[in-house]
Structure formats: structure tokens, C-alpha cells
Amino acid sequence: MSAQLIDGKAIAANIDVLAGEAGAVLAKQIGRAPCLAVVLVGDDAASQVYVRNKVKRTEAAGLKSIEVRRPADAPEQEIIDIVRGLNDDDGVDGILVQLPLPDHMDANAVVEAIHPDKDVDGLTETSAGRLVLGKPGLRPCTPAGCVLLAERTLGDLSGKSVVVVGRSILVGKPAALLFLEKNATVTIAHSRTKDLAELVRTADIVVPAVGRPQMVRGDWIKPGACVLDVGINRIDAPERGEGKTRLVGDAAFDEIVGHAGSITPVPGGIGPMTIAMLLRNTVLAAAMRAGLPAPEGL
Ligand code: GUN
């Protein structure tokens, strides 16, 4: 048996279209397109690529995009003031400060300056609190993308056993809470977990999110289980030629593909979902701010 490949790229493209359609309906009601503002500080190469993709996909979906760029040596207070200005701008629905910020800045202070109703990354303390309390709010994009892929692949997640491997603030913890919201039975495993392989073998859904290349092995996976690999690691690939590298996840794809029921590839699995959920959050934020219900189909 070979696992079904979960095509995150295709599903993300579909979410982009749905967000665009919902955004167009909403635009008629509020008199303008939902708008995402992205703040990029410094010239980190990877961040520039991420931001370019975010802007491109926002505009391709027919949403409005604002980009604010500042040099790496900009004072922290200037960035906080920019965020506050965007908070006060009624034409802006979502604010994203690209991370990492330069070392001299307190990233937490900058992120906390974002108004929770515009926090499309779901990173503020208020957004985290809303998630824990089960209150409506904007959910973090990558874990929300995991849940959406799981639902598209398996349908109702109620009663499914989920093992999240990793307890990071950005992925592991919120992913666990989001699966719990779907009535799954969730365990968070981490570096001190005993008999990790045994535990993972009990899961209907495994979410490797530890940042260690190919750590979750093939014989850890229950036959037929769904593996949602959040990891993106660049490793040496001498088999492709001298000095060559390739991207791998936190799961040993080649071992797992033979007996899992479904698995996300790396790249092309969870990765593209992050921006799709960002567009979705931008439209949800616009609706929420206008006092309208969440658009249907999103
Ligand atoms: N840097 C890398 N990924 C992300 C993300 O999802 N959000 C933000 N704000 N910064 C990032």
C-alpha cells in the first residue's frame, strides 16, 4: 500500500480562491476589499521571499495588500508606532510583522502592539487566550492549515487520536488546541516523552513539528494513519551531486509512505497552507471588524 499524498499546494490554491470569493462578497458590503498590511524589518533573504509570496498571493486573490519596509537598524519604537498607525487605520483588516525581527528588537513587544482583532498571525497573547478559552478569534496560520488538511483528507476529526510531536508556541501548542476544538483526543509529545515511538504508534493523526530532519520513523506509524509533517529542514544531498542540498520534513517520508494512509510531502504539504490561512484570516478579520458573520464557505 502506498500512502495518499496530501496535495497542500492544490488545497492552498483552493483556499486562496475561496478567500478571494468571500473577500469580493464582503467588499460589496463594506465598500472596499479586505486589506492585509505586512511589516518587514531588515533584509533577511528568507523573509524577503516569504513577504513577496504573501503580497503576491494576497493580490492574486483580489485582496488589498500594503507593504511597509524598514531597515534593520530602525528603532523598535518606530516599528511599534508603525503597527499602532496600522491599528488605527480603518482600511486595514490584518497586520503581520514578519519574523524574525533584528536582534536589537524585542519581538514580543512589537507583536503585542498589534490589535488582537487585526492579529491575522494569531500570535498575540489575546489571540492565544481566545484559543485556550474556546472564544472566537484569529487562529495561528500553520496549525490551522494542519487541521484543515486533516479535515479535507479524513472528514470529521471527532474522536480521532492525534499525537503532536513538538510543543512550540508557534505550532505544537496551538495545533493541539485546534485539534481539541475539533473534538479529537490530543497528546503533545516532546523531548522528554518516554517511549515516543510507542505513543506515536497509537495515533490516527501524527503531527511532527520538532525541527529535526526525518526524526519520526516509518515503524512509528500505525498502518493507515495520517501524517501531517510541519518540518522544513535543508539537509546535504551528496547523491544529487557535490554540495547539493534538499528539503526534508521532520518525518522520514520514504519509510512512511509505504504504510501510512496519507502523508503531506515536503515541500508542497503544510508549507503552502500558511499563506492560504493568512488570506482566510484577513477576510475573517474584515468580517469580524465590520460586525458581520464569518463568510460562508470559508
Ligand atoms: N516568519 C516565518 N514564518 C512566519 C509567519 O508565519 N509569520 C510571521 N509573522 N513571521 C514568519
Key terms:
10 helices, 298 residues, alpha/beta, binds guanine, three-stranded parallel sheet, 2 domains, Rossmann fold
Q: Strand sequence of the main sheet, in spatial order? A: 1-11-8-7-5-6
Fraction of residues in H or I helices: 25-40%
Per CATH, the superfamily of the largest domain is NAD(P)-binding Rossmann-like Domain
Tell me the name of the CATH class of the largest domain.
Alpha Beta
Structural class, please? alpha/beta
How far is the first residue's CA from the last residue's CA? 33 Å
Tell me the Rg in angstroms.
19 Å
List ligands, each type once. Answer: guanine
Question: What are the secondary-structure elements, in order, as H or E?
Answer: EHEHEHEHHHEHEHEEEEHEH
CATH topology of the largest domain: Rossmann fold
Number of strands: 11
Identify low-pLDDT runs.
Answer: none
Short structural description:
The protein is of the alpha/beta class.
